[in-house]
Amino acid sequence: MAEDVRARRIAAMRGCDRLLAGVRPATVRERLAELGEVAGPALMPDYYGDGLVAELEERVARLLGTPAAVYFPTGTMAQQVALRYGAELTGLRTVALHPLGHQEVHERRAYADLTGLRAVHPTTAPRHPTAAEIAALDEPVGTVVFELPLRDAGFVLPTWAELTEAAGAARAAGARVHFDGARLWESTPYLGRGLAEIAGLADSTYVSFYKTLGGLSGAAVAGTAAFAGYARAWRHRHGGQVFQQWPAVLSALAGIDRELPRVPEYVRHARTVAAALARVPGAIVHPQPPHTHQFRLWLPYPAERLNEAALVLAEEEKVWFAGGWRHAELPGHAMAEISVLAPALEWSADEVTETGLRLVDRIRP
């Protein structure tokens, strides 16, 4: 049944003339055609991490202002290696994580089950830990992790001053600082700093290529040359030394060239979209205004009815509003994550509000 719903959703989105959230799903043939536009006629595949992989690693290192970067097929693998390095370097197998962090919620606690580390939580509040909370930890930790932005708290970020103070508190406690920057690309407008200056606060930084940039898959960790050497060794041990990865790497390079320069525009327009959605009766937007180009929207209806209404709206009117509605923290409400990307830029505030009202009208008795 879930596969049938997913297939219906993909078909509906592909048939839409306008999309407010996300992008139109592409077929395999369409993705291959995109890669063909990027690749020159003489471009050769990579072999065990050379060629295109090395080019992407050098590109990321320059963007983040670090001596080196290492490509990984998945972010889960990359983050395990970064935390293991912190444990071995400091001799401390305890890490400070947020309970809403990606390692806890979306990685099946791989850092604990596969790497043998143990977590402490500086705070359970739906925000980033403060310098005071890190300083108040009652045991030493090898690494303090900051997820920028913290997705499961609503894609929220600290201010630059808060992040600087918290990172300083972690170092003062003898810990390494690791940035889970899967979505670091869209954090620069709110923090008011470039990628290199942000990454400069951390000892290691992880970035994703399929989130925001639209790549097929893949990630990278960046830091010192010593860290990069360690990461390459453990990438191999984790099974990440893949023979050829050129499709994912090529799509990542294309994303850096094509999507990364547009991210500030997406973030600006997300604020317009969020304010317009807040005008729909019963709607709750968080954060308001959004910190990045993504935010959460709650509506006072059951998730099942919202998902069905969104599909029917797409099928009948060729307009995609938002999907993936689920029951969340607010009783009587369902929540969806809104991602404002290129297709949303053509929407005015009034059009956003009016479409939200049409969606709600399909649910009301």
From TrEMBL:
Could you tell me which residue ranges the Aromatic amino acid beta-eliminating lyase/threonine aldolase domain spans? 47-293
Supply the name of the protein: Beta-eliminating lyase-related protein
Q: Which Pfam families match?
A: Beta_elim_lyase (PF01212)
Name the domain of life: Bacteria
Keyword Lyase present in the record's keywords: the answer is yes
Family of this protein = Belongs to the threonine aldolase family.
**Which PANTHER family does the record associate with it?**
L-THREONINE ALDOLASE (PTHR48097:SF9), L-THREONINE ALDOLASE-RELATED (PTHR48097)
Gene3D superfamilies on file: Aspartate Aminotransferase, domain 1, Type I PLP-dependent aspartate aminotransferase-like (Major domain)
UniProt keyword list: Lyase, Pyridoxal phosphate
List cofactor names only. Answer: pyridoxal 5'-phosphate
**Has keyword Lyase?**
yes
